[in-house]
Automatic annotation (TrEMBL), chains A, B:
This is Uncharacterized protein YndB with AHSA1/START domain. It comes from the Bacteria. It comes from Jiangella mangrovi. Belongs to the AHA1 family. Residues 13-132 form the Activator of Hsp90 ATPase homologue 1/2-like C-terminal domain. InterPro entries: ASHA1/2-like_C, START-like_dom_sf.
Length: 149, 149
């Protein structure tokens, strides 16, 4: 099992702001993908416009602790993502809202995992920008990092 | 042991361009840190200007295969980095120069590793920009991702 790990901080922001950006449709649509919808009480659907067609994930919300933790399980998506878990751990460090990120449970460190690791970093920078400036870069206006988008 | 993994691609670029950016002082200074120097035949020194003072790494070049591979061992730097290995594997996929990146051998998934994972992603995007536009964002003009820089 191998994990993707990241850490970002948003200046002049609070963990409550970060928590809202991770638990509301408007918040999530502001940094990850504009095409974010609630499909059940505890399932959020994320769809992405890519050159190769539409793609995306459904996340079951397993745990939420205001200002502290958001924990999802991938219940629909590419085979490599199915059953993996995504955790956002929040901490206030002075003026900074810190997000510790883990996408855990990958079976193998395949090339697609390398791609997703880099892509997560750019989306977390988008989250930071949303918290600091009010405007992130969600799909379809996300940063192109390679031929895989 | 845990690894940091990334994948980026530079459009209209060749693996030879990427190899030059990973094996020459000018190339490395164009995307990672401007303060890059050769300190021995097979050791490259990277220093970074940070709010908390100067920091950096010395890398021993273990393997180089033109257009294919660059492999370093960290011989000086923060304790968490010492003895870890960094690999850049290059592949031409049509018009794209693909870089598969691995920073392997971390003992524990500490918060600093989370930070370095995100930071590597932003520097690899800087490498992509250097290859595509002739201009990257090396330290001290790198992207600030948190209170840790």
């Amino acid at each position: 099992m191998v994990d993707i790990l990241h850490r970002i901080g948003a200046e002049s922001a609070t963990v409550d702001d970060a928590y809202a950006a991770l638990t509301t449709i408007d918040g999530l649509a502001g940094w990850w993908t504009e095409d974010t919808t609630a499909v059940a009480d505890d399932v959020i659907r994320f769809r992405f416009t890519l050159p190769q067609g539409e793609d995306g994930f459904d996340m079951k919300v397993l745990e939420t602790e205001p200002g502290k933790l958001v924990h999802w399980e991938v219940v629909k998506g590419p085979e490599e993502w199915l059953g993996t878990h995504i955790r956002f751990e929040l901490a206030q460090e002075g003026d900074w809202a810190i997000v510790m990120f883990r996408h855990e449970g990958w079976k193998e460190p395949v090339p697609f995992m390398h791609h997703c690791s880099t892509k997560w970093a750019t989306f977390l920078v988008s989250l930071k920008e949303l918290l600091e400036t009010g405007k992130g870069s969600p799909n379809p206006n996300d940063l192109l990092i390679s031929d895989w988008h």
